[in-house]
Amino acid sequence: MPELTAFTREAARRIGITETALCKAEQTDRIAREPDGRWDIDKIRRRLVETVDPYRSPLANGMLYEFQMTMFQPVGGMDAIGQALFRALGPELVRLGRKVIEIRQSERGVRVLHVDAAQGGNPIETTADWCVCTIPMTVLSQTEMDVGPAMRAAIDSIPYDASAKVGLQFRRRFWEQDEQIYGGIPYTDLPNSLISYPSRRHVGRQGRAARGLSLRRRLRLPAFGDAAGGLRAPLPGLG
Q1: Do 177 and 124 belong together in one domain?
Q2: Which residues of the chain fall short of a pLDDT of 50?
Q3: Helix-strand-coil percent breakdown of the chain, rounded to 5?
Q4: Positive or negative, the Cα torsion across 7, 11, 17, 23?
């Protein structure tokens, strides 16, 4: 017996994707309703997998519940990971406030020259067998280093997109109480791109929701309610 429903939101909930994603898939002819206007859940689920674009895969975003990854969040935020590594290694191995000015490598290993980031001065050389470099490309492109022409060209050509995060706190969690949204990141076609809902203390009294915005588009941030159930400013319940 086919699993059918006439409601788009209910179909999205059963499949494990957002209602927006389901509507976009219908608009691009990846999926279609049954002749009577209802959704066949199993058929839609199969079509989403069969027609997935490997370059913009909803599976990569964990939008189908069968493919969601187990996610853990460090208590105190992502910075807690770096703080824990610092405590484990100690100040003898970790040097803070240093600016890397050169990275030299040969068959014998790697040499890194660095100076005091605030005052400059004479460089200090640190040697090692390997170097794991996490310097942003736009900064690394200004650093002297031993790499081939192709690698250098790649480093120099990679751009970064400016972005911002806006956090809002409300007196009540209307997205949980009214819309039954508990955590996660819904994607929108608005300039903010997405909304991140809190993933802890569900059904609490107050809650914060964060919005992301690509500054490259240079668009004004619309009212938060535009992507949160049709609310308009002034926002009811804003704490």
Answers
A1: no
A2: 55, 57-67, 213-239
A3: 25, 25, 50
A4: negative
Any domain includes 74: no
Helix axes 41-50, 8-15, angle to 10 degrees: 60
Distance CA 25, CA 19 (A): 10
pLDDT score for 206: 60
Last residue of a domain, one of 133, 157, 181: 157
**Does residue 214 share a domain with residue 170?**
yes
CA 65/CA 13 separation, integer angstroms = 10
Count of domains for the chain = 3
Place of tokens 């608005």: 190
Largest CA distance in the chain: 77
| pTM summary value | 0.49
pLDDT digits over 209-232, tens only? 555 544 444 334 444 443 333 333
Q: Residue 163 forms beta bridges with which residues?
A: 214
Is residue 60 a contact partner of residue 15, using CB atoms and an 8 Å limit? no
Same domain assignment for residues 172 and 124: no
pLDDT, tens digit (0-9, with 9 covering 90-100), for 40-50: 999 998 888 78
Range of the domain at 129: 79-157
What's 121's domain CATH number? Answer: 3.50.50.60
Return the structure tokens found at 112.
């890194």
* CB-count burial class (<10 Å; 0-12, 13-18, 19+) for 22: buried
Indicate the residue type of 43.
K
170 and 221 part of one domain: yes
